[in-house]
């Protein structure tokens, strides 16, 4: 009997802001749920690193895509001045 090896998909984390960053390496993760957890953690760390550079009127996003380039998740942040 042949053993079945579980396929581990690769996910790519693309940042879109003033200086967009395309992830060409990606990360092998168990499934979409693991990719979501990684995306939320990564987004939090990136937003923390912005450290005051994110200004009213700007937008920031993180797009997670699969190996075929299909979008899986999108996290977006926009800001605006209210007065």
Instruction: Give the end-to-end Cα distance, rounded to a whole number of Å.
Output: 69 Å
Radius of gyration of CA atoms, rounded to a whole number: 16 Å
Low-confidence stretches: 1-5
Beta-strand percent range = 25-35%
Please outline the major beta sheet.
Answer: 4 strands, antiparallel
Structural class estimated from helices and strands: alpha+beta
In spatial order, strands of the major sheet run: 2-1-3-4
Walk me through what this model shows.
This protein is α+β, with helices and mostly antiparallel strands and 83 residues long. The chain has one domain (10-17, 27-78). The protein is 23% helix and 30% strand. A 4-stranded antiparallel β-sheet has the order 2-1-3-4, with helices on one face.
How is the topology of this model organized?
Elements: E1 10-16, E2 27-28, H1 32-50, E3 59-66, E4 71-78
Antiparallel strand pairs: 1-2, 1-3, 3-4
Please supply descriptive tags for the structure shown above:
alpha+beta; four-stranded antiparallel β-sheet; single chain; disordered N terminus; 83 residues
Summed up:
The protein is of the alpha+beta class. It is 23% helix and 30% strand. It has one domain (10-17, 27-78).
